[in-house]
Amino acid sequence: MGLTYRDSGVDIEKGDHFVRVIKEKLSGSEKRNIGLFGGMFELNPGEYKNPVLVSGTDGVGTKLLLAKVAGKYGTIGIDLVAMCVNDVITSGAKPLFFLDYMACGELEVKKASEVIDGIIEGCRLSGCVLLGGETAEMPGMYKKGDYEIAGFCVGVVEKKEIINGKSIAGGDILVGLRSSGIHSNGLSLARKALFEKKKYRYSAVHPLLARTLIEELLIPTRIYTDPVCEIVKKVTVKGIAHITGGGIPGNIIRLLPPGFGPKIYWEKISPPPVFHIIEDAGGIEKDEMRKTFNMGIGIVFITDWRNKERLVSLLKEKGEEPLIIGEIIPAV
């Protein structure tokens, strides 16, 4: 008997079974879209006069390695949705739909199903539809047990309401919202400091933490759709930065017109203990920490001084703990 596709390491029947597993987790239009060649999403024609689509794509980096070590894949999908959605909402856009891509050496349906559970939960938290995805078995490219995931999100914003940072000026105020922890950036440095240099066990419980180190690092990235999408309708916001790789200054700079820079009030920011543990474990300099990690701030609003108090008040009404963490100044 001749070679089959399964002999080469690709099991189409298992892939088809996985599609059925995903469908069983969904309902309505989401369920109908899964398995088609293209996902379909209908815009409400009366909701926008001049709609602009905003797209974003991202992954979770080496946080996936920690999920593999822990044998826990249930929240990594939340991280994936969060990394994409949080980028899209910085333009003032409402997330509409999400697609995922999963590549592996050999599809293990139980693990992949856990990842999908997280993706579905992330979509629920962000108010968007899981429109479709792709699962690729690539023996030879990945070893058995290895996974890579990527996500793609599309949102919509009224053209005249786009937030792009163009009106940012000197004296504007930076208002930050807390992160849930390390989120999904800087994990390579964290792993090297904690588990290679300091040689902590993954299961170690540090005195400053209420959980093991690996559990702390796997806390899912916070999704900011709810506060951001509501706040931008009520108060003037000139710019929004999602704090990822590059830290607080590096991501704010991306929004600023030429000739301006951020002045961060570092003394106003109290990083969660995990950042102090990483810093100490690796002997990492403050500047390196600040340009690698979010340091406890996940989203930053930029507004003028006239709207500062209203923005802070509205965020508190939403149950947030907003911090004034800096201002915009002329670049040196």
Any overview of this molecule?
- This protein is an alpha+beta fold.
- It folds into two domains: 6-159, 2-Layer Sandwich (60s Ribosomal Protein L30, Chain: A); 173-330, Phosphoribosyl-aminoimidazole Synthetase, Chain A, domain 2 (Alpha-Beta Complex), CATH 3.90.650.10.
- Helix content is 35%, strand content 21%.
- It is built from twelve helices and nine strands.
- The strands form two sheets. A five-stranded antiparallel beta sheet has the order 6-8-5-9-7. Strands 1-4-2-3 form a four-stranded mixed beta sheet, with helices on one face.
- α5 (109-126) links the parallel β2 (94-104) and β3.
- α1 (12-25) packs parallel to α5 (109-126), α4 (76-88) packs parallel to α5 (109-126) and α6 packs across α10 (273-282).
- The radius of gyration is 21 Å and the shape is globular.
- The mean pLDDT is 95.
Q: What ranges have pLDDT less than 50 throughout 5 or more consecutive residues?
A: none
Q: What is the 3D form? A: globular
Query: Gyration radius, to the nearest Å?
Result: 21 Å
How would you sum up the major sheet?
5 strands, antiparallel
Assembly type of the chains comes to single chain
- The overall number of domains is 2
Going by helix content, strand content and strand pairing, the class is alpha+beta
CATH topology of the largest domain: Phosphoribosyl-aminoimidazole Synthetase, Chain A, domain 2
Q: Any guess at the CATH architecture of the largest domain?
A: Alpha-Beta Complex
Give the total of beta strands. Answer: 9
Helix content: 25-40%
Strand content: 15-25%
Mean pLDDT level: 95
Strand order of the largest sheet: 6-8-5-9-7
CATH first level of the largest domain:
Alpha Beta
Task: Give, in order, the helices and strands.
Answer: HHEHHEHEEEHHHEHEHHEHE
Superfamily at the CATH H level of the largest domain?
Answer: PurM-like C-terminal domain
Q: What is the end-to-end distance?
A: 73 Å
User: Count of DSSP helices?
Assistant: 12
